[in-house]
Amino acid sequence: MRKWFLPLALVSLAALLLSGCSTGRGASWPALTSDGELAYLAGGSYVYAIRLSDGTEVWRFPAKANRKLAFYAAPALTPEGHLIIGSSGTTHTLFSLDPASLDPESGEPLIDWTFDDARDRWIAAPLVTETGIYAPNVDGNLYALDFQGRPLWSEPFSAGGPLWSRPTSDGEHLYVASLDHRLFAVDAATGQAVWADSVTLDGALAGSPALGDSGTLFIGSFGSHMHAVDATTGHIRWSIPTKGWVWGGPVVNNQTVYFGDLEGYFYALDTENGEQRWPSIQPDGSVIGTPLVLDEQIVFTTEAGSVYAVSETGEILWSTQVGGKLYAPPVLAGDFILVAPLEADFLIAALDRNGNQVWTFTPEK
Amino acid sequence: MWDTFIVTPLTNLLLWIYYTVGHNANAFGLAIILFTILIRLATHPLTRQQIKSAQAMQELQKSKRWQEIQKKYKNDRERLAQEQMKLYQELGVNPFGSCLPTLIQFPIILGLYQAIIRALAATPLELLRLTRSIYPSLDVASIIPLNSRFLWMDLGRPESVQVLGVGVPVLAIIVALTTYIQSKLTMPATQPDDQSAQMGKMMSLYMPLFLFYLAITFPSGLTVYFITSNVVGILQYAAMGRVNWGNLLPALGKRSEK
Prior knowledge:
- The complex is a heterodimer.
- Chain A is mainly beta.
- Chain A has one helix at residues 2-22; strands at 31-34, 38-42, 47-51, 57-61, 76-77, 83-86, 94-102, 109-115, 127-128, 133-136, 141-145, 157-158, 168-169, 173-177, 182-187, 199-200, 210-211, 216-221, 225-230, 236-241, 251-253, 256-260, 266-270, 292-294, 297-301, 306-311, 316-321, 331-333, 336-339, 348-351, 357-361.
- Chain A has a 4-stranded antiparallel sheet, with no helix packed on it. A 4-stranded antiparallel sheet of chain A has the order 5-6-7-8, with no helix packed on it.
- The longest helix of chain A is centred in the first third of the chain and has 21 residues, at 2-22.
- Chain B is mainly α.
- Chain B has 2 domains: 1-150, no CATH class; 151-258, no CATH class.
- Chain B has helices at 2-20, 27-42, 44-62, 64-72, 77-91, 99-120, 124-133, 170-185, 195-217, 220-239, 245-248, 250-257; strands spanning 149-150, 153-154, 161-163, 166-168.
- In chain B, strand 1 and strand 2 form a beta hairpin.
- Chains A and B meet through helix 1 of A and helix 6, helix 7 and helix 9 of B.
């Protein structure tokens, strides 16, 4: 017995060490959506539906954790109120859930349909328009589906590189950013490329492009630039350097483009020429999530777990420390600003418009 | 500490090689191969020390004095251990001399594994972590995300080739084979009752199975590392004339004995 014990023990120790090095962290951070009554959180093993009035759980999907499923892409709501959510686990299924029909036994929403053609994870939220569902996948394809889960195009649009961000739409065209530095314009009806060639920028594009009033797309890159691209032609109008890599997509409001970078700076640029509206603000950590425009304030989160609100003139109106790490963008839900921290004791914090915490959501085991 | 002194430098070295070899199709596979060769060369003095110590132990165990004390104290394990230790000291042989270099290399292997996984950064959290690991002197914004394609593989995922609708883990089979061949070729010729040889034989069976399991479970970038490491290991032994072909091809071994 002794002759095999030591080798077996050594091999087991090595296995333990190697597997210990590769587990323990999820693929991404939680993401939120709301329909004004419920908040929907893609929070790892489950998608939760939480009542906004008091922060209590209404249901979770699946009722029992499935180790092949993991949810990090923000759920998207169809006009009929169905929830579209993709798995980032080892199974790459896109689900359509019907929150109006709950299983009487498990309490989970019934599955309306599933789509299993994608070859990789769903990290980005799908875009839902009046015409269909446009779901970007890490396999480099943008899948277009109708509300019954049937393909709208003869074949998905292939961007080549991984797609980590939701496309942006002007109603006719879809603007798709790929992690391999390229920006595409796609005809929403046919799935064909609109520009003669994709626009290649100076770094990875991890966030969604924002569309301004003048037909300009704004997108930040890992090349530490904010770029303005003509949505009709694909020509770059201007590029402004930033202090760090830009991860999250920007937001446009009143001819100003707002965004943050990984070095922990928050910017406000003139959409026309890229000039700074005011000197960049330095909050307490990296800014990764897309900011939220709320009345006359711009709300953004930091990796250090803080939520900031700034005025259009660059004055910090309030800031509050929520805890954990805030990577996901803040979401407006009814009267609340919802944030979903990673590595905190709770999954959601609901703030009022002055930054006061109203409730937190911690799921029961 | 582990991260600062082992994983981060190795990750940066890997990224630098990737950047240097052209950061396009197949570059990451090539970078892993070059990276493995570089690390094996850097730890070559340890490997040489390991081989020398193993050889010294082997010669000691063949010696007349060793055989005598084995016979004399075969029923008194405590005394036998004392006498063996005395002999080690007298002849200047370190009984752990062959284990120590292996133990020192083990953290490097773990670090390599973590560096490969980190550099691939297939998820947002992994990519965020990678951005924090890159030295400022290394301008890698233009090469992220790394192109994980290498030949027919995606180095960020376990590999398999579809044969008649069945996924065959070709790389995992190559890993198991090269691991088995390496352990056989580098195992010294020993006497049948030698306990360390028995253990070595068991290891030569367990390790290929263990690495096969890792290869079908973990990203194939790690499998490329294992295969390269095995091949370089065999070449290192061959360069020092320590490859024992007789273990793999008995006929060849018998011929050389004559």
